[in-house]
Write a structure and sequence with these properties.
- It is built from ten helices and eleven strands.
- The chain is α/β, with parallel strands linked by helices and 315 residues long.
- Strands 3-4-5-9 form a four-stranded parallel β-sheet, sandwiched between helices.
- Helix 5 links the parallel strand 4 and strand 5.
- It starts with 6 loop residues before the first helix and ends with a helix.
Length: 315
Amino acid sequence: MCGAGGFVGGHLVERLKSEGFWVRGVDSKAPEFRATAADDFSVVDLREPAECRRVLADRRFDQVYQLAADMGGMEFIHSAECDILKNSVRINVNMVDAAADAGVDRYFFASSVCVYRDMTADEPELTEADAYPALPDNEYGWEKLYSERVLLAHARHTPMQARIGRFENTFGPFGSWRGGREKAPAAICRKVAEAPDGGEIEVFGDGTAIRAYTYVDDLVDGIRLLVESDVTEPTNIGTSEYVTVNELVDTVFRVSGKQLGVRHITGPVGVASRNFSKERIGKLGYRSSHTLEDGIRKTYPWIAAQVAESVAQGS
């Protein structure tokens, strides 16, 4: 599990362990919010080819999950373009090359719906094939699209099978909630938890941008279905519940029980709208089991507790 110290990687390690797998976790950092469930965990720089080969050298691995990336929320994506292109491409090129040489059976790559172009609110769903002609909105999307092609090329020329999941915004407990790398649901939960009842929070843009926010357990369900399937093409994984940022904010307000106002400010927003077909993953039997509010009801209390602990410690 590459990226086992991160948010989705940590949840996926737990799932794999519950299914009886022996799991090696590697990441550039140790897990921040809880101990890893991996049988073996190492802090490794996957930008280095020799390190990618070393973590695969002492046993034969049936599956590799590549979730390691230099990434974060919109603030980070817009401010760290050079780091994203440099670091994530190096990780992906080196890791897929090492896995193919090591005889790995199946290789999962965590891609993103950022590979798609911008959309308007009234457009019909885009399918996976609509990533071409390519016009991602940001460099993070271009990096993901290129890395998909690196994996698919190796799959054409080696016995290793490719599995590619294109993620939408994912949220849940044990993820980044401050510091600029957090995604919108975590950022809104933090701001609401920090605000006094009757106060207000700041939200980037006018709140009309449309997104789908997938609860992490549902994403992990989709990853496992995809990896164990025969589907080799890139596949959208996520919920089909699309909401505006304003609706996300209202949901967090409702769950928190606070009466708060909103002040819209200038800041990185990203694309205007998203709407992607889930037909390919749906044919495998996938359905999201959590609504946005279901997921926020599990996520907000955890972030509120982090905020309270941080205040108590003066950090």
